[in-house]
Amino acid sequence: MLSYPGASADELAYLDLQLVWRDTRLQPLISPSSSGEGEAWPRTGDRALLLASVAEIATANGYNTLTATNVSRGAGLPRAIFKSLFSDAEECFVAAMEQRAEEAIAQAARAQAAGRTWPGGMYRAISALCDQLIGDPLLTSVCLAETFEPDSTGSRSRARLIGVVAELLNDSAPILERPSALSAEASTGAVWSLFHHHLIRALPLSSPQIAATLAFMALAPVIGAPATVAAIAAEQSE
């Protein structure tokens, strides 16, 4: 798609270097409670310390190095407190990963709501998602690179994060512009393959260097290349 000659695709290199206004960190993530009402994710306390510790260890040394002992030690807490909150290191790690993934998805949804148009909102959402992933070492080095057993909790959490682009395409698009399930899945695969290449295999990047191209890959099959480029440019003009 990106190699196909055309004036619209030629503009992507320029658009990728521009900033889009987006306010993606207005409030802390609201997590569901058993009563159906939301409450903010805890940012302090023993649980928060353990989640921060497991994220730091997994990012630095890999998922397979995690133990209840080193996570507790990293948090500066007795192992008994760890055992009162989590059954093992895997459960603690999954809790940390799910929290980070839910935050990324929530921020993308907030950014999408600020778009002037549906395609513009998708571009904002992808930009915000890039911000979250690039800015979070756990998501970049573990969630996108770590190998999990098939159908494990970790693999399912990562699959949900990767599938967020398809969810946004399917759920937010006007009925007449809604892509087929196959088209949305194909676009998501292309977006994440390119993002993974830049993030994991290439030099570190900032999200404006790739967000417009990723949005183009998601939207051009649905609304066409010229309309996609125009929508991206409109969001950057604020």
Structural notes for this entry:
The protein has 13 helices and 2 strands; from the N terminus they run ααββααααααααααα. The chain has 238 residues and is mainly alpha-helical. Strands 1-2 form a two-stranded antiparallel ribbon. Helix 7 (118-135) crosses helix 13 (225-236). The protein is elongated. The model is unreliable at 24-40 (pLDDT under 50).
Count of helical regions: 13
The amount of helix comes to 55-70%
CATH architecture of the domain at 7-25 and 97-236: Orthogonal Bundle
Radius of gyration over C-alpha positions, nearest whole angstrom? 19 Å
What average pLDDT do the residues reach? 77
CATH classification class of the domain at 7-25 and 97-236? Mainly Alpha
Give helix and strand order, one letter per element, not per position: HHEEHHHHHHHHHHH
Number of strands: 2
Could you please say which CATH topology of the domain at 7-25 and 97-236 applies here? Tetracycline Repressor, domain 2
Tell me the β content: under 5%
Instruction: Describe the main β-sheet briefly.
Output: 2 strands, antiparallel
SSE-based structural type: mainly alpha
